[in-house]
């Protein structure tokens, strides 16, 4: 018997670990893909995901008031990622004060600015995709649909969906790699001057 998300949220709010586990496994892949778009370091993202679900569990009483768990989850994830970037920025500043002669002391990178810039570049990468590829990519990453579900929804074969999704992913990664590095390089140059 399939249990609705509302029921899972209600049970989780009462402390039902099994219901919370279902929420976790249902949304883990989508959250991982979401974070990867903004931070390609899997270890950092794994830590953020653990923190997200721990934070949600600690405030589980609030789950009764959540309309969309996915939106709630992604908002907390975004906030924790920004917190992490701020913390890294502060750690760098402390290291510059402690070791002013170090190689990194001249670099003053504002990680939040970098994150916003990288997010802008990611949006541009999505815009460059054909309408079909972008739609398939968003169904997979944003909506968390499986390749089979997308194929059924669009009435096309799974192999076409798979080919389009991987082509979109490769295009986005390449765009982020080339434009993202260029943007970060410009930020480094700007902050050193």
Overall pLDDT score: 78
Largest sheet: none
Q: Which residue ranges are poorly predicted, with pLDDT under 50 across at least 5 consecutive positions?
A: 100-111, 181-193
The structural class is mainly alpha
The fraction of residues assigned to DSSP E strands is: under 5%
Helicity range of the residues?
over 70%
Q: What's the total number of strands?
A: 0
Overall shape: flat
> What are the secondary-structure elements, in order, as H or E?
HHHHHHHH
- Spatial gap, N to C terminus: 63 Å
Number of helices: 8
Radius of gyration: 20 Å
How would you describe this structure to a colleague?
- It is a single chain.
- The longest helix is centred in the C-terminal third of the chain and has 35 residues, at 158-192.
- The protein starts with a helix and ends with a helix.
- It is flat, with a radius of gyration of 20 Å.
- It has 193 residues and is an all-alpha fold.
- Residues 100-111 and 181-193 have low confidence and may be disordered.
- It contains eight helices and no strands.
Give a brief rundown of this model.
The protein is mainly alpha-helical and 193 residues long. The chain has helices at residues 5-13, 17-38, 42-58, 69-98, 111-127, 131-141, 147-154, 158-192.
């Amino acid at each position: 018997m399939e249990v609705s998300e509302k029921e899972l949220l209600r049970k989780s709010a009462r402390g039902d670990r099994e219901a919370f586990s279902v929420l976790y496994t249902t949304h883990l892949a989508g959250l991982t893909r979401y974070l990867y778009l903004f931070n390609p370091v899997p270890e950092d993202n794994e830590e953020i995901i653990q923190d997200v679900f721990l934070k949600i569990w600690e405030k589980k009483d609030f789950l009764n008031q959540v309309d969309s768990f996915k939106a709630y989850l992604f908002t907390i994830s975004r906030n924790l990622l920004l917190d992490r970037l701020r913390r890294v920025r502060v750690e760098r500043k402390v290291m510059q004060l402690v070791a002013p002669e170090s190689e990194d002391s001249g670099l003053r990178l504002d990680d939040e600015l970098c994150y916003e810039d990288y997010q802008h570049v990611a949006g541009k990468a999505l815009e460059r995709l054909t309408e079909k590829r972008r739609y398939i990519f968003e169904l997979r990453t944003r909506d968390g649909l499986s390749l089979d579900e997308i194929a059924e929804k669009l009435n096309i074969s799974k192999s076409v969906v798979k080919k389009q999704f991987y082509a979109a992913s490769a295009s986005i990664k390449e765009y982020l790699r080339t434009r993202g590095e260029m943007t970060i390089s410009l930020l480094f140059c700007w902050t050193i001057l």
